[in-house]
């Protein structure tokens, strides 16, 4: 951790003007999604607010489309201070921040409104605090909608239809175990490899939300989109803690407030894009169907038994379910 702070301090100092009044600090932020995607635009808006509220002393450069690497790589870059900001899915943090296991659990949220209430409340605050010991400060939780399975073979209507199919999943043990509990085979791989892997038959499909299914053009190679809606997994926007700690308390408050203020903008854009993406994939020939969701929910008991393993996590699950 001491080495991470040192590296972050060096990286931050190298970006700052030396000795001049009003010196500017340029912070780099990574996102795997394309330009215009709601998370990218949410971070851009955050950057606008920071620049305005610090009178230009800080500027945020957003590197979209995995220009700085896939999520696993950029998580290590932001923890070490090579980059200062990062928007990633919460699932890849399951191994380092155990509290992130809870929002990644299948069917833990009733719907997106329930997820908002949970992540905007005390449970969200507890999860934010858990990032700091691993060198990160959470500035915002962003929407990523509900994730469902899609494939190139057939519609999925019941758990039995999942048998034997090969799906790409996020690099997370929970997603691997969830897929196995449904009788399918999970293949963790980087997001950027999914299209070619479906096209060449390495996998049969993947699981994601409408905007990702649309913008990554997976609809071209996997026409069957089945609305099992297994997870409503928030995205997380984080900052290197050493870089954050190097700022004045006043600037820290500006960054925290800008992160919170960017959430509303991101959610508006997300709702709009989800509606547009559903229309686009339907026009592109996607066959969208409902599923026997209760069967999927019932199949998740082994996943909870394996991953909700201590009192902290059990209490968090109870708190999520009790949130009205």
Automatic annotation (TrEMBL):
One of its GO terms (cellular component) is outer membrane-bounded periplasmic space. InterPro entries: DctP_fam, TRAP_DctP, TRAP_DctP_sf. The keyword Signal applies. GO terms for molecular function: carbohydrate binding. Keywords: Signal. Pfam families: DctP (PF03480). PANTHER family: DICARBOXYLATE-BINDING PERIPLASMIC PROTEIN (PTHR33376:SF2), PTHR33376. This is TRAP transporter substrate-binding protein.
């Amino acid at each position: 951790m001491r080495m991470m702070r040192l590296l972050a301090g060096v990286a931050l100092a190298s970006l700052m003007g030396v000795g001049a009044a009003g010196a500017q600090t340029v912070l780099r932020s990574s996102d795997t999604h394309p330009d215009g995607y709601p998370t990218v635009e949410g971070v851009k808006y955050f950057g606008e607010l920071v620049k305005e509220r610090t009178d230009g002393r800080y500027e945020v450069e957003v590197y979209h489309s995995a220009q700085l690497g896939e999520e696993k790589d950029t998580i290590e870059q932001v923890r070490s201070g090579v980059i200062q900001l990062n928007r990633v899915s919460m699932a890849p943090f399951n191994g380092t921040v155990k509290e992130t296991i809870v929002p990644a659990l299948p069917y833990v949220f009733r719907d997106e409104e329930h997820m908002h209430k949970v992540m905007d409340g005390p449970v969200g605050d507890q999860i934010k605090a858990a990032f700091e010991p691993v060198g990160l400060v959470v500035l915002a939780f962003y929407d990523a909608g509900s994730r469902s399975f899609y494939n190139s073979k057939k519609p999925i209507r019941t758990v039995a239809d999942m048998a034997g199919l090969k799906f790409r999943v996020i690099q997370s043990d929970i997603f691997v175990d969830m897929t196995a509990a449904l009788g399918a085979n999970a293949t963790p791989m980087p997001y950027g490899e999914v299209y070619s892997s479906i096209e060449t038959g390495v996998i049969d499909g993947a699981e994601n939300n409408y905007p990702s299914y649309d913008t990554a053009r997976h609809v071209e190679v996997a026409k069957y989109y089945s609305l099992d809606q297994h997870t409503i997994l928030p995205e997380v926007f984080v900052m290197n803690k050493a870089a954050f700690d190097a700022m004045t308390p006043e600037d820290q408050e500006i960054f925290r407030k800008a992160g919170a203020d960017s959430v509303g903008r991101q959610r508006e854009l997300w709702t709009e894009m989800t509606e547009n993406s559903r229309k686009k994939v339907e026009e592109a020939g996607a066959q969208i169907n409902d599923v026997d969701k209760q069967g999927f929910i019932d199949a998740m008991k082994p996943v909870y038994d394996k991953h909700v393993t201590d009192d902290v996590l059990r209490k968090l699950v109870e708190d999520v379910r009790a949130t009205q």
